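Here is an idea for our session: we take a single protein and study its fold together. Which protein we use is up to you, so please pick one and set it down. Once you have written the record down, we can walk along the chain together:
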Amino acid sequence: MASPLPFIVTVLAIVTPSLAAVTVNTSAIIQTLSIDFYKRKCPSVEKIVSDVIKKNALTNKGSIPGIIRLHFHDCFITGCDGSILLTPERYNLYNTEMAHPANGISLRGMEVINQIKTEVEKHCPNVVSCADILAYAARDAIVSVGNPHYVIPAGRRDGVAIDGNFAGGLPKSISNIERLTEQYAEKGLTVEDLVVLEGSHSIGQSRCQGTIAEVNSTLEVPAVDNFLDKSYKAMVENQSCAPKDSGVFWRLTTPLNPEKKVNEAWGVSFYENISKGKGVLPSDLAMAVHGTTKDMVKQYASNAELWKKKFNEAMIKLGKMNVLTGEQGEIRRHCGIINSVNIPVKQ
């Protein structure tokens, strides 16, 4: 999922290897997780997660795409270790991913993960990692909007320290397909995984920066300029992302599918839209015109069941990315802070 959070680009393109030359780092996908990991230690954990997600799917709809994105952003930096959840509060002296401009004010769903953690701790104290909770929650969020249920292997441990600057390595919405393919390959994911996972952009929102509404956002993907539906671009600008020249543009947000209500467009509508030049993110539109990816886009636009199957498979794979297991890391008592950081007592 290319992060819909941009950085200023001052060159027309970046030099990247051809897609055929990119080697997928298969060692990044760790196979030591277990489906029955909590069967004895915390058999109720998945029901607890599911119940909280179902409640928020009705009362806090924005949290659903937010949680899916949280899981992706967590895994893509240093692996699925819950590091995205570490808060930048004053009692936490660590430089956090959450506070990085690539995340910052755009993150949603942390309060739901905290709700789940609180409930899990009541039943199984010091047993279930925040990284596993986030993986379960992302799965249940996906199920809540239309995908079939899938089994999540568990046993992840929580990271104890992270350099938040690593968040600068998240995929960007202004990147070309060559660059995105290279980034995914470094994490053990293929170009097909890239195309499949981007389908989550059928719901949720993006900051206006890095979208088609921002000036020069297509510099790395110039083929998108002629392909882009100009009336769709005008709609995004007029409804959500104006005025571009004001000091508040960086705070404005737009739905990723402005023609549909929240969470009602999950799935192949994304591929149908970008095939018609209707997409908010330049990198998404690039998939519909690039020679390596455009046939995949057409395939998923016409086959919802195939895409759902592939999406679930890609999410399972994503969830195994560079995980901590065994004695590595810790089981956090609070998802926002590592155990060695004391929570100040309220007076």
About this structure: Residues 89 and 148 are 37 Å apart (CA to CA).
